[in-house]
Amino acid sequence: xxxxxxxxxFLPGGFPSPxxxxxxxxxxxxxxxxxxxxxxxxxxxxxxxxxxxxxxxHGWFQYPAGFSYRAVEFALDWNRLGRGDRVLDPFTGxxxxxxxxxxxxxPSAGTEAHPFVARIARTKVFWDYxxxxxxxxxxRFQAHLxxxxxxARHAAEESVPPLLGKCFSPSNLRGLLYAKQEIHRRAPPPxxxxxxxxxxxxxxxxxxxxxxxxxISPRKRITEKDGIDTFLSQLDRCVRDLGGxxxxxxxxxxxxxxxxxxxxxxxxxxxxxxxxxxPYLNNYDYADRxxxxxYFTGFARSWGEISQKVREKLVMSATTQVLRSxxxxxxxxxxxxxxxxxxxxEEIQRKxxxxxxxxxxxxxxxxxxxxVGQYFNDLTRSLKEAARLLRRGSRYMLILGDSAPxxxxxxxxxxxxxxxxxxxxxxxxxxxxxxxxDKWRSNPQRHQVPLKESLLVLER
Length: 460
Ligand SMILES: C[S@@+](CC[C@H](N)C(=O)[O-])C[C@H]1O[C@@H](n2cnc3c(N)ncnc32)[C@H](O)[C@@H]1O
Fold this sequence. Notes:
Layout: H1 18-22, H2 50-53, H3 69-78, E1 87-89, H4 96-103, E2 108-112, H5 115-124, H6 131-147, H7 149-153, H8 162-167, H9 170-186, H10 189-206, E3 209-210, E4 217-221, H11 227-243, E5 254-258, E6 271-276, H12 286-289, H13 291-297, H14 303-309, H15 335-340, H16 342-361, H17 368-389, E7 390-401, H18 412-421, E8 427-436, H19 439-442, E9 451-459
Parallel strand pairs: 1-2, 1-6, 2-5, 6-7
Antiparallel strand pairs: 3-4, 7-9, 8-9
The structure holds S-adenosylmethionine (SAM).
S-adenosylmethionine binds near residues 65, 91, 96, 261 and 262.
């Protein structure tokens, strides 16, 4: 990988320049090559999806767990990555890292364990359409839907889980289901996934129930929009965005593997950089949050099916994933964590024990003890795998937050940095991005611990 750029970037107060931060010995001007100059960046939003919402391609599906595409741009600039590199995102999500890489002609690959989310990412990184054919196919399909509104209104009822009936009026839902059916009937294969992603992206925009993430509140009503119209304009957006992609990079590889980052199919030392945001230890249930889309597409029809198809494949980050009988909390950490860092393993075990006590005090409801232990087991395995995939001398950057279940502070990012150093990484550094979870200030029932989001930088 290229050394760090010569001139410090223009970064907001407190955030160090790459030289100060990552190579303390380097003096400004040592590197004769001109570095790219950055605009001032609002790093506090790096961990949120706010920037990505309106951005071309990134905004096709508003994944609340996504992060800012600007964070990836920043990382690529900071590390001076180019077309000779290959970037890994172990927790690909909806593909933010890979969309940015592809836009610069940088090959990338990643794993995403949630099958439905992996499909969205795969669609977002496929740009190799014959553009004239795409425009034609979209125009034809739009004309068909516009002219068959009557049919849509009288389409046969499809039996769907009740949640859908709470989000849409019967006629609107019928229209959306009709659009789905017509995609399957009429959209030719290279375009089918794109049409479906456009339709999925329209769901929350059209819903008459407040479907803002993370929770759907069926009782909170908002203005419902016509589903078919919303879908048609989503399709326009997709065509426009694809038209704006750089033609010379449309075939740059961006591989999205539906699978587990703890056991990925990629070769040893085949990446020169990695960037990701793993699940936080914050009780966010990815399977639950995509229920609306899962039910609509028929990917799952019940809570049980969602659990089986999604939950069990993901690293543990929510107490809803915990089956308590499977774990012994007194000795929960796997040997890999102890081998990587006995001191951190001991600290984690102490937090787990404390959480077992708190659980009894709180009436035995939430299994945060199991969650914390298992989270570090899972993340340790993912770091070990990343160490295998990354070339020596390369860098792995992660956006992540700490947490305080039942008021017990768990410095996730520091623990993971220390664990990584026992798994083949040479060093770690932490840069705070923002404070978060300030709700505790106004809610005495919640914990009193200020939380933050940080950038963890690992040197391989
Ligand atoms: C914070 S999100 C990443 C969001 C992503 N940056 C984006 O652009 O949408 C974490 C992702 O990790 C995925 N995940 C959880 N366990 C996984 C595993 N074992 N292997 C791969 N992905 C996993 C979740 O489904 C989720 O999409």
